[in-house]
Amino acid sequence: MRSANGGVRAAYDVTLSMRSRLVRASLLLGTLGIGVSQLGPWGGDLRAQVTDRVDRLLPRSYTALPVGGALTDPATPVLSGYDVGFAVDGDLRRAWAARWQPPGDTGAPCDRAGGSPALLVTFRQPVSVDRLTVNAGLAEDSDERLRQARPRQLDVRFSDGTCAQVDLADVPTAQPVKVHAQLVTRARVVVVDAYPARDRPKVLLMSLSELTFESRD
Q1: Which residues are 72's β-sheet partners?
Q2: Measured at the alpha carbon of residue 179, what is the angle toward residues 122 and 39, in degrees to the nearest 5?
Q3: Cβ burial, residue 192 (10 Å; 0-12/13-18/19+)
Q4: Over the stretch 143-171, which tens digit does the pLDDT of each residue have?
Protein backbone atom coordinates (compact mmCIF):
# COMPACT_ATOMS: atom_id res chain seq x y z
CA MET A 1 0.00 0.00 0.00
CA ARG A 2 2.93 2.34 0.72
CA SER A 3 4.50 1.60 -2.73
CA ALA A 4 1.19 2.25 -4.44
CA ASN A 5 0.99 5.54 -2.59
CA GLY A 6 4.39 6.75 -3.81
CA GLY A 7 6.22 5.74 -0.60
CA VAL A 8 3.86 7.68 1.68
CA ARG A 9 2.18 5.76 4.48
CA ALA A 10 -1.49 5.23 3.77
CA ALA A 11 -3.83 7.12 6.12
CA TYR A 12 -7.14 5.84 7.42
CA ASP A 13 -9.69 8.39 6.34
CA VAL A 14 -12.94 6.41 6.47
CA THR A 15 -15.59 8.17 8.54
CA LEU A 16 -16.35 6.44 11.85
CA SER A 17 -19.68 4.68 11.97
CA MET A 18 -22.37 6.01 14.28
CA ARG A 19 -22.04 2.90 16.48
CA SER A 20 -18.32 3.49 16.92
CA ARG A 21 -18.95 7.10 17.90
CA LEU A 22 -21.53 6.07 20.47
CA VAL A 23 -19.20 3.47 21.97
CA ARG A 24 -16.36 5.97 22.25
CA ALA A 25 -18.64 8.60 23.76
CA SER A 26 -19.99 6.12 26.32
CA LEU A 27 -16.48 5.11 27.35
CA LEU A 28 -15.46 8.76 27.69
CA LEU A 29 -18.50 9.64 29.80
CA GLY A 30 -18.01 6.53 31.95
CA THR A 31 -14.40 7.42 32.61
CA LEU A 32 -15.38 11.01 33.41
CA GLY A 33 -18.11 9.82 35.80
CA ILE A 34 -15.72 7.53 37.68
CA GLY A 35 -13.23 10.35 38.03
CA VAL A 36 -15.83 12.81 39.30
CA SER A 37 -17.19 10.28 41.81
CA GLN A 38 -13.78 10.09 43.46
CA LEU A 39 -13.47 13.85 43.95
CA GLY A 40 -15.05 16.31 46.30
CA PRO A 41 -17.47 15.78 49.18
CA TRP A 42 -20.17 14.57 46.80
CA GLY A 43 -18.18 11.46 45.81
CA GLY A 44 -19.71 9.13 48.41
CA ASP A 45 -23.30 10.19 47.64
CA LEU A 46 -22.74 9.88 43.91
CA ARG A 47 -21.24 6.41 44.24
CA ALA A 48 -24.17 5.35 46.44
CA GLN A 49 -26.71 6.60 43.87
CA VAL A 50 -24.95 4.83 41.00
CA THR A 51 -24.69 1.61 43.01
CA ASP A 52 -28.38 1.78 43.95
CA ARG A 53 -29.46 2.28 40.33
CA VAL A 54 -27.30 -0.57 39.08
CA ASP A 55 -28.62 -2.76 41.91
CA ARG A 56 -32.19 -2.13 40.78
CA LEU A 57 -31.41 -3.40 37.29
CA LEU A 58 -29.66 -6.59 38.38
CA PRO A 59 -31.67 -9.64 39.54
CA ARG A 60 -31.10 -10.38 43.22
CA SER A 61 -32.08 -13.25 45.47
CA TYR A 62 -32.56 -13.05 49.22
CA THR A 63 -32.54 -15.52 52.09
CA ALA A 64 -34.74 -15.21 55.17
CA LEU A 65 -32.72 -14.79 58.35
CA PRO A 66 -33.44 -17.02 61.36
CA VAL A 67 -35.19 -15.17 64.17
CA GLY A 68 -34.63 -16.04 67.80
CA GLY A 69 -37.89 -14.65 69.08
CA ALA A 70 -40.18 -11.66 69.50
CA LEU A 71 -41.81 -9.83 72.39
CA THR A 72 -43.56 -6.53 72.99
CA ASP A 73 -42.25 -3.37 74.64
CA PRO A 74 -43.82 -2.66 77.02
CA ALA A 75 -44.86 -6.21 77.79
CA THR A 76 -48.59 -6.68 77.27
CA PRO A 77 -50.99 -9.58 77.79
CA VAL A 78 -51.28 -11.88 74.79
CA LEU A 79 -54.55 -11.56 72.89
CA SER A 80 -56.21 -14.89 72.23
CA GLY A 81 -55.28 -16.09 68.74
CA TYR A 82 -52.80 -13.25 68.13
CA ASP A 83 -49.57 -14.29 69.84
CA VAL A 84 -46.63 -11.93 69.33
CA GLY A 85 -44.56 -14.79 67.93
CA PHE A 86 -46.95 -15.07 65.00
CA ALA A 87 -45.39 -11.89 63.54
CA VAL A 88 -42.15 -13.74 62.74
CA ASP A 89 -43.14 -17.41 62.43
CA GLY A 90 -43.26 -17.56 58.62
CA ASP A 91 -46.94 -18.53 58.57
CA LEU A 92 -49.12 -15.95 56.78
CA ARG A 93 -52.29 -17.60 58.08
CA ARG A 94 -51.49 -16.31 61.58
CA ALA A 95 -50.89 -12.76 62.76
CA TRP A 96 -49.85 -10.73 65.76
CA ALA A 97 -52.38 -8.16 66.90
CA ALA A 98 -52.45 -5.53 69.64
CA ARG A 99 -54.77 -2.79 70.81
CA TRP A 100 -54.45 0.30 68.64
CA GLN A 101 -54.70 3.97 69.61
CA PRO A 102 -53.61 6.47 66.92
CA PRO A 103 -50.56 8.33 68.28
CA GLY A 104 -49.67 11.98 67.93
CA ASP A 105 -47.26 12.73 65.07
CA THR A 106 -44.29 13.98 67.08
CA GLY A 107 -40.57 13.32 66.93
CA ALA A 108 -38.13 12.18 64.29
CA PRO A 109 -38.25 8.72 62.67
CA CYS A 110 -37.37 5.96 65.16
CA ASP A 111 -37.98 8.38 68.06
CA ARG A 112 -41.75 8.52 67.63
CA ALA A 113 -44.36 6.87 69.79
CA GLY A 114 -46.43 4.09 68.30
CA GLY A 115 -50.12 3.39 68.48
CA SER A 116 -49.43 -0.07 69.91
CA PRO A 117 -46.59 -1.71 71.86
CA ALA A 118 -43.31 -1.92 69.99
CA LEU A 119 -42.25 -5.27 68.58
CA LEU A 120 -38.76 -6.39 69.65
CA VAL A 121 -37.25 -9.00 67.33
CA THR A 122 -34.01 -10.80 68.23
CA PHE A 123 -31.75 -12.79 65.91
CA ARG A 124 -29.99 -16.03 66.81
CA GLN A 125 -26.63 -14.52 65.87
CA PRO A 126 -25.32 -11.20 64.49
CA VAL A 127 -26.67 -10.77 60.95
CA SER A 128 -26.59 -8.24 58.12
CA VAL A 129 -30.07 -7.25 56.94
CA ASP A 130 -30.49 -6.10 53.32
CA ARG A 131 -34.25 -6.28 52.98
CA LEU A 132 -37.36 -6.29 55.15
CA THR A 133 -40.55 -7.84 53.76
CA VAL A 134 -43.82 -6.89 55.44
CA ASN A 135 -47.24 -8.51 55.23
CA ALA A 136 -49.46 -5.91 56.87
CA GLY A 137 -52.81 -6.77 58.40
CA LEU A 138 -54.62 -10.09 58.38
CA ALA A 139 -54.63 -12.44 55.40
CA GLU A 140 -56.64 -11.41 52.34
CA ASP A 141 -59.27 -14.11 52.88
CA SER A 142 -59.91 -13.14 56.50
CA ASP A 143 -63.34 -11.67 57.22
CA GLU A 144 -61.76 -9.56 59.97
CA ARG A 145 -59.06 -7.93 57.84
CA LEU A 146 -60.90 -4.63 57.26
CA ARG A 147 -62.32 -4.60 60.79
CA GLN A 148 -58.80 -4.10 62.15
CA ALA A 149 -56.26 -1.34 61.57
CA ARG A 150 -53.48 -2.19 59.07
CA PRO A 151 -49.97 -0.73 59.42
CA ARG A 152 -49.36 2.27 57.17
CA GLN A 153 -45.91 3.30 58.41
CA LEU A 154 -43.25 1.58 60.52
CA ASP A 155 -40.14 2.85 62.28
CA VAL A 156 -37.50 0.11 62.44
CA ARG A 157 -34.44 0.67 64.63
CA PHE A 158 -31.64 -1.91 64.40
CA SER A 159 -29.09 -2.53 67.13
CA ASP A 160 -26.33 -0.94 65.01
CA GLY A 161 -28.23 2.36 65.10
CA THR A 162 -29.69 2.07 61.60
CA CYS A 163 -33.16 3.63 61.32
CA ALA A 164 -35.53 2.64 58.52
CA GLN A 165 -38.86 4.37 57.91
CA VAL A 166 -41.12 1.94 56.05
CA ASP A 167 -44.17 3.20 54.15
CA LEU A 168 -46.76 0.55 53.33
CA ALA A 169 -49.69 0.29 50.94
CA ASP A 170 -53.03 -1.05 52.15
CA VAL A 171 -52.64 -4.44 50.47
CA PRO A 172 -52.45 -8.00 51.86
CA THR A 173 -49.51 -8.99 49.66
CA ALA A 174 -45.82 -8.98 50.63
CA GLN A 175 -44.13 -5.57 50.50
CA PRO A 176 -40.30 -5.71 50.31
CA VAL A 177 -38.24 -2.72 51.43
CA LYS A 178 -34.46 -2.42 51.16
CA VAL A 179 -32.55 -1.68 54.36
CA HIS A 180 -28.86 -1.66 55.21
CA ALA A 181 -28.04 -2.91 58.72
CA GLN A 182 -24.76 -4.63 59.50
CA LEU A 183 -24.07 -7.31 62.15
CA VAL A 184 -27.19 -6.62 64.20
CA THR A 185 -28.66 -8.73 66.98
CA ARG A 186 -32.10 -7.17 67.29
CA ALA A 187 -34.64 -4.84 65.69
CA ARG A 188 -37.30 -2.65 67.30
CA VAL A 189 -40.40 -2.19 65.14
CA VAL A 190 -42.89 0.57 65.94
CA VAL A 191 -46.18 1.07 64.08
CA VAL A 192 -46.52 4.86 63.95
CA ASP A 193 -49.49 5.05 61.56
CA ALA A 194 -52.22 2.70 60.36
CA TYR A 195 -55.07 2.52 57.88
CA PRO A 196 -58.39 2.88 59.74
CA ALA A 197 -60.73 -0.02 60.36
CA ARG A 198 -64.12 -0.25 58.74
CA ASP A 199 -67.11 -0.25 61.09
CA ARG A 200 -64.80 0.50 64.01
CA PRO A 201 -65.38 -2.08 66.75
CA LYS A 202 -65.45 -1.30 70.47
CA VAL A 203 -61.93 -2.72 70.88
CA LEU A 204 -59.78 -1.61 67.96
CA LEU A 205 -56.91 -3.92 67.03
CA MET A 206 -53.92 -3.47 64.72
CA SER A 207 -52.61 -6.64 63.09
CA LEU A 208 -49.40 -7.68 61.37
CA SER A 209 -49.19 -11.03 59.60
CA GLU A 210 -45.45 -11.29 59.01
CA LEU A 211 -42.10 -9.55 59.19
CA THR A 212 -39.30 -11.25 57.26
CA PHE A 213 -35.73 -10.03 57.66
CA GLU A 214 -33.54 -11.05 54.71
CA SER A 215 -29.95 -10.98 53.54
CA ARG A 216 -28.83 -10.74 49.95
CA ASP A 217 -27.26 -13.90 48.50
Answers
A1: 119
A2: 135
A3: buried
A4: 999 999 999 999 999 999 999 999 999 99
Query: d(Cα 71, Cα 118) in Å, to the nearest integer?
Result: 8
The whole-angstrom separation of Cα 188 and Cα 129 is 13
Radius of gyration of the chain (CA): 26
Q: For residue 82, which of 64, 98, 104 has the smallest C-alpha distance?
A: 98
Lowest average pLDDT, out of 37-41, 113-117, 191-195, goes to: 37-41
Neighbour tally for 59: CB within 10 Å: 4
Q: Check whether 35 has a pLDDT greater than 90.
A: no
Instruction: Give the chain's end-to-end CA distance (angstroms, integer).
Output: 57
The residue length of the chain stands at: 217
CB 157 within 8 A of CB 101: no
Contact 211, 136 (CB under 8 A): no
